[in-house]
Structures are given as structure tokens and as C-alpha cells.
Amino acid sequence: MTVELRDLEHIYPSGDIALAGVTLTLEGTDPVAIIGQNGAGKTTLVKHFNGILRPTSGSVLIDGVDVTSHTTAEWSRTVGYIFQNPDDQLFLESVRKEFGFGPKHIGMDSDVIEQRIGTVAELVGLSHKLDTHPFDLTPTEKKFCAIGAVLMMDPSVVIFDEPTCGQDRKGTARLSHIISSLRESGKLCVIISHDMKFVTMNCPRIVVLCHGTVLLDGPADEVFAQPDILRRSFITPPPITRVGQGAGLKETVFSVPAFINAIATERNARG
């Protein structure tokens, strides 16, 4: 699956320029993080992937097909968007009905739907809550209900908008497992987040937006090795990364074990 943006511009009716000529290609199955300060254009950007927003100029192509050639409902089979606030997405009387709604409306076979409900519910940790009203779920469970409802559609691209917001450690670990599972099944995950620890642990590629333009784009270790540029979009590397940079390590590290290993490697190299 390939998402290609060509000179994408978006100007809101107020005259505010949200995107100022973004050219970008996302493809393969490696999760991609889109980061930047509030107002950088992150959510505006990804809402073009399935036609929730339409370009002022430029184009968005999904496997070579212009997004404007189909409706958002039609693109939902290919590009799934998980809203930051699950209350914006959930509206039915049970988790089971939320999971079944989308697939039924695209004509998915009922036996396939039932099989997928079991698989998806287990993945998102709601197997025991299928007959619960979504509004009776905890905030964390609501988030996973919204994720499950999108995954039921079996999209090729899954967009997570601030998935760790309000999550505890257990929930964050489950999110990482979900992203890993989607990657293994050939899906492309696009993650908008201010949680740099989560981003570096899950996303090999980082795209940094600043005032509607791409400031940096590349492997995580290369992007976070440029703190001076990151400051322009008010991005701070994870704490352990900053410690390593302060210690003068040549390697960009994202975990304590990696930090210890880098120190040992540089000591051995000095003999």
C-alpha cells in the first residue's frame, strides 16, 4: 500500500494555511510517526488520506488512485482513521454492535464478521466486554473499542491519532502489540503522537511537521540526532536519548539497555 502526497495544500475557510505544499510518500509496513507541535498540520494531513478533508491544491494518491475520486465511506475499506476522542466515533448500544456496524455496511459476509469479532476483540482486550455499552467502558477500554471498530473493516492503512492519550502502562503496551500485529499482517500504521518514548519504540520512520511543511523525514535515530532542528517544532527527544546526547554518545539511543550497550561499545573501541 502506497500513500503519495503531491504538493498538498490545505487552506481553511478562515484563511489559515494548514498545509503548505507537502510532498511525501508512505509505503510498506513499517509504522510511521507524524510528530510536531500543536497546529503543525498533523491531523489535517492525515485526514486527507481518506477524504475527510479535500485538498485546496495538490493531490493525494492511494496506490495511484486519487482520493477525490471516491467518497470517504468508500475509502474506509482501505484507510481506517481512529479518532483521538473515542466519543466522536462510538454511537451504538454494545461493543459487539460497534464492531459489526462497518463490516455489515460494506457487505462483509456474516460468518466472516463473527470470526473477525472474536479475533479483533481478543487483540484489543475486549473479549469479555462485547455485550457492554461503550459508554459503560473505562476511558482506556473506549479507546480500544474505537480501535477495534476500525480494525473490523480490515483496512490496509490504519491511522492512530494520539493513541496513548489517557493510557496507562498496560494500555500503552497493548497499543504496541496491536501495531506490531498489524505490521506482521501487512498493514501500514501511521501514528500521530506527542509521546516521543512511544514513537521511538514503535516507529522506524519519523516525519516532523512544522507550520504545515515537512521539517525532517527519516529513520528515528537520524531524526532524533538533530535536536537543534527538532526545537523548531518544539519536539524534545525522549529523556534517555537526551542523556545519551549529553554524555556525548555517537549512537542515538532510545532505551536504557541501548544506552548501556552504547557506552560499553565506545569504551571497547577506545581500548
List the helices and strands and how they pair.
Layout: E1 2-11, E2 17-27, E3 32-35, H1 42-46, E4 57-62, E5 65-66, H2 72-75, E6 79-82, H3 95-105, H4 110-124, H5 139-151, E7 157-161, H6 169-184, E8 188-192, H7 196-202, E9 205-210, E10 213-219, H8 220-223, H9 227-230, H10 239-246, H11 256-270
Parallel strand pairs: 3-8, 3-9, 6-7, 7-8
Antiparallel strand pairs: 1-2, 1-4, 4-5, 9-10
Organism: Bifidobacterium cebidarum
Pfam families: ABC_tran
Family: Belongs to the ABC transporter superfamily.
Please provide a written account of the structure.
This protein is α/β, with parallel strands linked by helices and 271 residues long. It has helices at residues 42-46, 72-75, 95-105, 110-124, 139-151, 169-184, 196-202, 220-223, 227-230, 239-246, 256-270; strands spanning 2-11, 17-27, 32-35, 57-62, 65-66, 79-82, 157-161, 188-192, 205-210, 213-219. It folds into three domains: 1-78 and 155-223, Rossmann fold (3-Layer(aba) Sandwich); 92-151, no CATH class; 238-271, no CATH class. A six-stranded mixed β-sheet has the order 6-7-8-3-9-10. It has a four-stranded antiparallel β-sheet with strand order 2-1-4-5, with no helix packed on it. The radius of gyration is 20 Å and the shape is globular. The protein starts with a strand and ends with a helix. Pfam families: ABC_tran (PF00005). One of its GO terms (cellular component) is ATP-binding cassette (ABC) transporter complex. This is ABC transporter.
